[in-house]
Amino acid sequence: MSLRRPKMRPAISNDRRFIVALVGVSAFLALQPVLSQARREGGLQAGLVGVLFPLFGIWVARDSRLHLIISSILSLLSVLGNVRHIGLPRIGSETFGTATALLFTGYTTVIILASVLRSQRITLNVIAGAVAGYLMLGVTWAMVHLLIDQCTASAYSVTLLDAAGLPNFPTAVYYSFTTLLTIGFGDITPTGSWARAMTVMEGVTGFIYGTVVVAWLVANHVTQITAHKSGGE
Length: 233
Description:
This protein is mainly alpha-helical. The protein contains nine helices and three strands. A three-stranded antiparallel beta sheet has the order 2-1-3. A hairpin with a 4-residue loop joins strand 1 and strand 2.
C-alpha cells in the first residue's frame, strides 16, 4: 500500500509578489499630489516611504531566508527612523530617517531587479517586477538626492520656487524621475559637487536600465516563443 503525498499548492508570493510591489509603488506615486497637500513640508511622504514601504518590501523578500532577515532588519531601522513623520516620538535625526529609508529602498530594488534577471520565463509577474524595479529605482534615487540636500548646504537650486535646496520629498521624487528619464526641464539644478555627480550617475542608470533590461526581456521573450514553436513542430 503506497501513501501518496498531498500536492503542495504553489506559494502565492512566488507568483504575485512583484505585482504586489508594483501596485504598492504605483499607488504611492499616484497619491503624491494628495499627500503633498496634506503635509506641505513633505514629512508625511518621507515617513510613508520609511514606514509603509517595508510592508510590501518584506513580501518581496519572502522567497529567501537571508533576504528576509536582511530586509526585516533594514525595515525595522527604517520604521524607527521615520516614525516621527506619522506623529510618534522622534527617534534620531532627519538625516538618520532618510538614510535608513534609503538603505531599505535600495536593498528592495536590488532584490527585485536580481530576481527579474534570474527569471527563466517571461511572465506577467516578471514584467511587473521590471516595471516595479524601475519605479523603485526612481524612489531610491529620490532618497539619495534628499540625503545629499540634508547633508550638504546649497546642493540644489529650485528655480521656480526661488529657493535653495529641495523643499520636500515630492520635489525630490519629481527631480529623480525627470533625471532617470533624461527629460530634465532645468527647473531644479544641482549646484553641489555631490549633487552633480549623483545626477549624472542617475542619468546613466536610467539609460542602462532602459537598454539592458528591456533588451533582456525582449530577447528572452523571443527565445521563449521560438522554443515553444520548435517544441510544437
